[in-house]
Every structure is written in C-alpha cells, then in structure tokens.
Amino acid sequence: MDYEIKDCIDAGSAYCPCHLAETGDCIVCSQLSGKTFCDCVNWKGVCIYQEYILNNKKAKVGRDGYLCKIIKKEVYDDKLYVLTINASRNLVHELIYPGSFIFIRNPQTSTYYDTPISIMEADTKENTLKIAIELRGIKTKCICKLNEDEKVLIRGPFWNGVLGLKNIYKAKEGVSIVIARGIGTAPGAPVLKKLYANGNKVISIVDKTPFTNIFGKEYFEMCNSEILQCKMLKDGELSNEFKTILQQILKVENVNLIHCDGPDILIYELLDFVGDSVNFSCCNNSKMCCGEGVCGTCSTRYKNRVVKRLCKVQIDPKHVFKERRLI
Amino acid sequence: MKVIVIGGGWAGCAAAIAAKKAGAQVVLYEKTDMVLGLGNVGGIMRNNGRYTAAEELIALGAGNLINITDSNTRHKNIDFPGHKHAWLYDVNKIEPAARRHLKDMGIELNMISRVVDIKKEEDKIKGLYLADGSYEEGDVFIEATGSTGPMGNCLRYGNGCSMCVLRCPAFGPRVSISMRAGVDDLQGEREDDILGAFSGSCKLCKESLDEDIVKELNEKGCVVIKVPEEDVNMDKLKAKVCQQYALKEFAENIVLLDTGHVKLMTSYYPLDKLRKIKGLENAKYIDPYAGGKGNSIRYLSVAPRTDDMRVKGISNLFCGGEKSGLFVGHTEAICTGSLAGHNAVRYFLGIPPLVLPKTTVIGDIIAYANYKMMTKEGRRNRYTFAGAEYFKRMQEIGLYSTDREEIRGRIEKLNLLDVMNQKLV
What we know:
With 327 residues, chain A is an alpha+beta fold. Chain A has helices at 19-22, 48-54, 89-94, 138-144, 165-170, 185-197, 217-222, 240-252, 264-274, 318-321; strands at 7-8, 64-76, 80-86, 101-105, 115-118, 121-123, 128-134, 151-158, 162-163, 175-181, 201-207, 226-229, 233-234, 237-238, 255-261, 280-283, 299-302, 306-309, 313-314. Chain B has 425 residues and is α+β, with helices and mostly antiparallel strands.
C-alpha cells in the first residue's frame, strides 16, 4: 500500500477548525486551504468548512493551560523521573488514547520551556497522569527540579504522539510486536494496553539502553507480554541479535503490527528491514514547541516542496522518511 | 477486461449494465450502502420528451433499468403543470429491485467503498485508491460520481448541508475522479454568476399530511394546492436545477406527487410556511431532512468530454450522468451512463466508439449539451428531455414522440436496433 493518507489528528475534535483554517492552511479541507471547491480526499466525518462558517469564520478556542499538583516523584538512575500528577477529570479522560501527550513546564519559567511529554498512564479512577521524563537539557531539568506537592503547568490534550494510529486500532485478535528502547516505554504503555485490550498477544522486544534496568516492566507484565531483551543498535545499524529475534518471530507468527518506540534511526532502519509486509506504527519523534501547527518546529520537508507539520499530521510511518529532505 | 465503475447512481448502474452486456468483467464502487443515489428520492419517468428517450433506450437494447422503473410504477400517464404523461415509480421499492438486477447479471458490487484517488501513467488511469488506502487496478474506468455535494460546496454555494439522501457525513463525500486525474472540472452556473444549483424537489412523509390529500394522491398521483399569496416567491425558481419545473405554476402552487413518499416540487420550503397551507399543517420532511432550510447543491463537477462519453485528456476514463454534463434526471443519467458503459468496452477492444446520431434524442442531447457547455449562456441552462430549452428543441426538430413503434422504427432505420445488447468480447 503506497498511498499516503494524510489525516489531521485534531480534525473533528473540539479544537477543530484551528487557526490554520483562518489563514487558509488547513491540513484536511480544500476549501480552507486556498480552493473554492471540495476535494474531500481525507474525510474524517465532519465538514471542517461548515464548522468554520458556523463558528463565524473563526478558529475554535485552543487548548488551555492547567496548574496541576505533582503527587508523586520517583527517580531512577539519577536521570529518569516518573511524575504522577493530579489533573482534572476531563483532561485525564481526553488523554487515555495511544499517542496522547501534553506540554509541560515549571510554572516559574516562560512558554519557551514548554516540553512535549508522552502520557504513560492516564488513570480515570484516580484522575492522575503518569509521565516519564529523561533528564536531557534545559527544559527537562527545570521540570525535574520540582518536588512532590508542587505545581506544574500543563497544556493539553494533544494526541499525535504516535504515527500510524490507524494500524494500532486495526490490529485485533492477532499477534503484535512492540519494540521499545529506553524511555520508549512511556509512549509505548498506552499502545500495549490498547493492543492487549483488542485481544492481541503482544511480544515485546526491549532495549534498556541507557538505563540499567528495563524501564516500565510492569506495563509489559500487565499485558501478559513476553519480554525479549537485546541491544538494538550497533554503530547506527540494527544489531544482528535484534534482526535474528525479529526474523524468527515474523517467520513463526502471523504478525498484525510492529510498533516501535525508539529514536528515529531505529525506526528508519526497522522500516527498511521489515519492508511493506507488516503494518507499522511508531512514536512521533518530531521536535515540538507549540503543538498547534504554527511555530514550524515540527515541520519536516519532502520532495516537491511538501511540508508536513508532524505535530498535527497523522500519517503512516512509511511516509515519515520517504522522500524526506534532510538538508 | 475489467471495467471499473465509480458511483452507483442511475448513471453508474446503467454503465455497469451496458459494459456487462458488452461482455466485460464489471466492478462497481459505491460510497453509500444503497445504489441509485438520488434515484432513491426521485421517481418521475416518461414525462414529456423522456417518453421518447425511454423508448429509444429500449430499442437500443439498453432498456433494463427502464423496465425496472416501469414495473415499479405507482401511477401511469399523469399530468401536472407543464408536464404530460408522467410515470411515477415507487421510491420505496426501486433500490432493492435495481440492486438485485445488477447482482443477477454478475456485476461485482462494492458498497460503502469510497474511491478517493487514482494512479495514473501518462494519459491512462492504472488503478484506484479507496478511502482506506487500498488499491484496485482496472482496464477502463467510468466515472459516475455525480456533481452533488460535498458539504463544503453545499455550504459555499447553497444553504449548507441539508442532510440529503447522499449522506456525506456518514459515508464521506464524493471525490471528483477526473479532477484527481488532472482534468479540471467545469461548473454549471445560475443567475448572477453564482455557481451550482439547488436540487429541485423534496420528499414529505405521507403520514404527516391530511387524509384527504393522501387519498387524492393515492388515486390520482398528483395534487396541486395554492400557495398563500404573501408566500409566493418567484426568485426561488432561479436557483433551481430542474428548469423543467421552474415554472410560474410551481411558485404559485404547491405541486405534490405520489412516489411512495410525497414529492414536493420545490427545492426547499420553510417548514412554518409550509404548515400554513391547508392539509399540510403537520407536514414533515424526510428528504432532505432539513428541507425547510435548503437542498443539495449540484453541477460543480462536470468533466469535459467527447460525444462518445470519454473524458478529454484521459484515454481510458469515461463518464455518465451529471458528471458528463448539465443533465437533469434519471432518464438522462441512464442514457449517458449506458453509452459510457458500452463505449468503455469498445475502447478496450479497439473498436470505433458508438456516437449516437443526432436523429436520436439521446445522441442529440449528448451533443447539444456538450456544445452548450462551452458557452456562458449554455452553462446557465440545464438539459433534460422533460422540459425547458431542450424539450422545446426536441419538439421543433420533430424528435418528440410517444409512439413506440415510430421510435423503434427510427432506431431500426439507423441500424442501431439492440446495438447495446450485443456481446462484443
């Protein structure tokens, strides 16, 4: 299947139409991107143009910021922080889907410090969000300074943290492979849960790098998933051990999905290795600042001057790297 | 050879049948869960010049769908303002009958399958992409996606989605295949340079009308009621697609026809005003559901074509129905669709295409509408055997007839008897 279906993750949501419609840059609607006729190739169940006109030709109100209390802070290996945050019932409910994420920052800092972080767990009973942050740079350090009972500023909900979402929802009653490296378990946990809930047997391949223990082991165990450990990358290429494990599973099982949470280099090599034979999904590694398609941080450029704002554009992972301009 | 038909309205069904009869493997894609599209809320056949066209179709060997509408007729030979000898088929029975016929012929029907794009090599279409990303290849393609909607067009050029039978929100709207193939669509116009036109009628729920009206409808097929003088709106006629019904009588009167539901011969009519009319105090719309507010917008997506129904610029794409011109009506769709289906097979076999001579009404309207599409004034008109400009022309050039033998004789003389019934493959 080489046809690219380009969806907008926000289409049809409470935040659609967004300001991209106001400037004629809507990702989905031809009438809101410079044309005067419908060309509804990516129908999402709602006429965005109609929503726009009915809203007096204005964008819907954007996402809000919420001050939320950190109720638990756990530290692993000095550089991995797991925060459990109390949030409103509505927000938690909006963040239960695979791919959900929020922007988070220390309330003492400015909006420049907004950091996109995946939701590892949204607990609708306790109204809590669990996130994992690896200490990396200025922004993460400012967040991880905060202590239990202190407040953190959250902006959300956002949903495009996983690409190839359709493939995850399609995978039912079969065998799925989940690949996670390091902090990748965080965006991977809701995917694991979804796959398990849809009656799939999940086989996980995990690389604990750069941590000393497998992070988030409980999520794999909760979903009855077998865990195969290996080092996935060697000199920027897939390790032989990893390739052998993968090949063996693919030979024996009829796999309905490979989901990969790791760096782009891993996803890229994996796509190349597996080819078109199996449906694929992966975490969205785009850099993001606003999450609203405006700032351009997540813009990736492709052949023929195509630009995809990956904070909003939901595509199959196969089309993330194909014909991409690196310079 | 594999012929793929996109769109299962009257034109698409006619094309599929014609291509099948000519010997092709035929696969049809329809975005909703019903074939016939707007035919599910239509019903009027054989009025005025459509009688001649229907008989021509039968004589040409393309009478399958006419036989189906004939055999599901509720009222024969009724007259209403401006129209004579109309036959009204039952819209509640027609769809399963037509669908069964297609299936029995061995046509592969793919329902709830929306075609969204094409793969092209030079000037040829290789295959189609469906909304779920899947891909299907074929040898010849026939586009019968119509020109109605999507919702954005109904809003920009009309009063917004009125929830018509096409049900865009539920199944996704049509996509112009010819435009995806790089051929720009042409548009029909109405007064004041506004593009598109409103669909021309609504359906009321029979049970919501007065008993006396229902009785008269069941007996006679037609009821005409005067509109209160303060509510007569002549301007409304301009916006209408069905110019054969854009007559003074249709503004001053409410014309109701019995097609199983009650066909209200106006694009839309505010419910509170409608309910002021005696006998309609409890009236309720069933198509479009918001018939009090508006109706679907049409004619925004016409493909440029030659008289053998091939889309200009693409060698293996044919078109029928509204996609092929500013045609109004089922009969017109069946005519253009049938020819498209037949010629699709001829194209593949390398046989010269069938261009119907202008001494047939079908050949003449196809050529006439095509010629008129090139003029500004022509784009403001609609072309139908049932009235307006073209019916007048039919009468003037002596093509209008209700004499079956005469019409059959004409086709026979042209050596075209049963031409579309012949297996070519």
